[in-house]
Amino acid sequence: MTPYGEWPSPVKAASLVQGAAGISEVIADPVRPWLLWWAESRPDEGGRTAVMRCDLRGGEPLEVSPAGSNVRTRVHEYGGGAWWPHDGSLFYVEFADQRLRRLDAPGAEPVLLTAEPPAPRAWRYADGRVTPNGRWCVCVRERHDTGGEPVNELAAVAADGSQRTVSLWSGADFVMTPRVSPDGSMVAWISWDHPDMPWDATCLRVHRQDDGQLGDEVLVLGRDGDRSLCEPGWDPSGPARLLVCSDHDDWWGLYEVDLENGTLSAVVTGAFDVATPPWVFGMQRWTAAGGALAAAAGMPSGDQLVGAGDGAAAPDTSIDSLTMARVAPDGDPAPAYAGAGYGHETEVVVIAADRGRHRRRVVRPARDLGLDPGLLVEPEAISFPTGPDGAATAHALYYPPANPACAGPPGELPPLLVHAHGGPTAAARRQLSLGVTYWTSRGIAVVDVDYRGSTSYGRRYRQALHGAWGVVDVEDCVAAARFLAGRGDVDPRRLMIRGGSAGGFTVLAALALHDVFAAGSSRYGVADLEALAADTHKFESRYLDRLIGPYPEARDTYIARSPISHLAGFDAPMIVLQGDEDEIVPPSQSEMIVEALEAKGVPVAYLLFEGEQHGFRASQNIIAALEAELAFFGRILGFTPADDLPALEISGLH
């Protein structure tokens, strides 16, 4: 029998990054549909993103982007959609200078498509598609050369290397997802304005298009601001079949758009979300071609692939992106996606037709972790009462300790680590996460909380956070911990809470306003909401209008909700982790809380990572952050991890 928290585990912090790849954005070449493309983010290569390609007619995956290149855009700061293929060529944004390039073959010299901006990275590009004639990239451009708030616009970039760029449309604060019709006659895109976020209210716009020039307006849908329209796209087999996701009926369903009158006809709908909140560009969780359709239906239990025909099921619980590939030689359309389950990390999959049945073909397998299956626990989906009177309901995924080689002492209950996801408009991931297994394999239970405001439960649940951030999310994390302690699963004296970004704010608020948790970890969390309202990037500069209230009109609420306003309530020890180049939550936010805790004599550890932005990408920093958290929790809760951990300086600990 070994005390909980002290179990020796084969899952090391280095296991999270060695050979790991964050696989996303699966795209089929629109001209050569037997070429399947995807992106890989590689922590052990400094966090750079590479673009891969596989010829589905035969051949192995190969890296197309230049060696050492980092394919990443800073539009909206969160990026995504930094590349797109066309006729075997790769169009991509290089992170270092944010200029758009065209690469015609692996190993060839990239062709610069955009001019050098007046200041470094002042012109940024994302989320493009090439016109069918190959002459133009229609994409999003974000300009930081205006002297005020950045300008987001629809732009056309010449594909021939002349570096000609034409501004097509800039009639809203934001644009996203420009998609050119198969015959090149129309372009559809999404726009929205402050203070909305793209999951609150957007417009779908369709215009005529002719060789990089925008023509007459065809349709504008969503002017009333009562729905989020996202992920528009055209059926490649027809000239004018436009589909889009809409949540006007609570759930993000997939609909066909009547271009004459703007009505929507249901295609894939139900008590599930097809779309996910578009924090990043490049997401599309549905595909259509020639009448065949597939969509990822996001449910509380995980994703299901629906609408692709009998037998076209995906045994994965998380589908990160979805697109269409036409598998040669017969040309039959087949859905392809990046997906993960509780038994494997993300891999690239094609579901191909074979004699009237569907078979699952893994194009890019997940890495072989070499772990005992008994370590890879599938969580229990729990729902529990929450709120002051217990009248509301929240949800979570509960992971008990799991290690076939270990057992806890009789009568002892394990510690619990409560995880508050970021966003806050996000969700607990329904897939294997070594970041969770790291804890459970050491005898520490984990609960990943889908507090009110999370995705996968419909628009009304998502909007339950409006005006209540820092209240209901905290209530739900506290309620999850109390629920599991009351059920007898975990030790009520050894409850911890952990979160990053918006989740870090929830951590700080929970520790400041409640006495439930014995310790906490905040990764680049918000300490001062008023400072955040005054010092953040354009994409989120009005986000708090919905979550808290308009600023400065609601200034009193901002102050009352800010953890920095409740220093007297901070008694629980904390570890704070921060990147020094974070422009979303600047280091000053973390340093405010660290200085306050030090002044009070509350034990606190602070790690500032050089070169990191919002979220840690470099392998050495991912390792250092996780090992520091384990060392910190062990010191505070009184268990000694079996790992050989680096020394950690904790001020105020005697």
Low-confidence parts, pLDDT < 50 over ≥5 residues?
Answer: 308-312
Main structural class: mainly beta
**Proportion of strand residues:** 25-35%
CATH superfamily of the domain at 411-637: Alpha/Beta hydrolase fold, catalytic domain
Rg (CA only)? 24 Å
For the biggest β-sheet, the strand order reads 28-29-31-30-32-33-34-35
- The CATH class label of the domain at 411-637 is Alpha Beta
Distance between the termini: 30 Å
Q: Tally of extended strands? A: 35
User: What percent of residues adopt helix (DSSP H or I)?
Assistant: 10-25%
CATH-scheme architecture of the domain at 411-637: 3-Layer(aba) Sandwich
Oligomer: single chain
The largest pleated sheet is described as:
8 strands, mixed
Mean pLDDT: 93
CATH topology value of the domain at 411-637: Rossmann fold
Separate helix tally: 9
Structural write-up:
The protein has 654 residues and is mainly β. The chain has a domain at 411-637: Alpha/Beta hydrolase fold, catalytic domain (Rossmann fold, 3-Layer(aba) Sandwich), CATH 3.40.50.1820. The protein is 14% helix and 35% strand. It contains nine helices and 35 strands. The strands form eight sheets. The chain has an eight-stranded mixed sheet with strand order 28-29-31-30-32-33-34-35, with helices on both faces. Strands 1-2-3-4 form a four-stranded antiparallel sheet, with no helix packed on it. Strands 5-6-7-8 form a four-stranded antiparallel sheet, with no helix packed on it. β25 (332-340) and β26 (347-354) form a beta hairpin. Residues 308-312 have low confidence and may be disordered.
